[in-house]
Amino acid sequence: MVLLVGEISHSRTEFIAMSLQAGDNVTTIGSQTSSADGNVSRFEMIGSYKTMITGVGIFYPDNTETQRKGVKIEMVCKPTIDGIVAEKNEVLECALNYINN
Asked: Three-state SS for 41?
């Protein structure tokens, strides 16, 4: 199985990616995810300022954290400006090249 991730992979998507990575023969291709998995705790500070923080850390079974790092990636592949202009999906192309070779 090839799993594609990138900077728009966020929160629940990251958690699902981690779950899929636990399977056999899974290769993750793409770029760093948003690193924003875990719950969100909202609170109000003095002066009616409102903010949110992540209240729970998310870790792989080997204790590797995902917050501020994103999910583990075996093959880094990122879109380029030239690829975007040419309307290419370079991450998908990387995955297809991996599968076919």
From this structure: strand
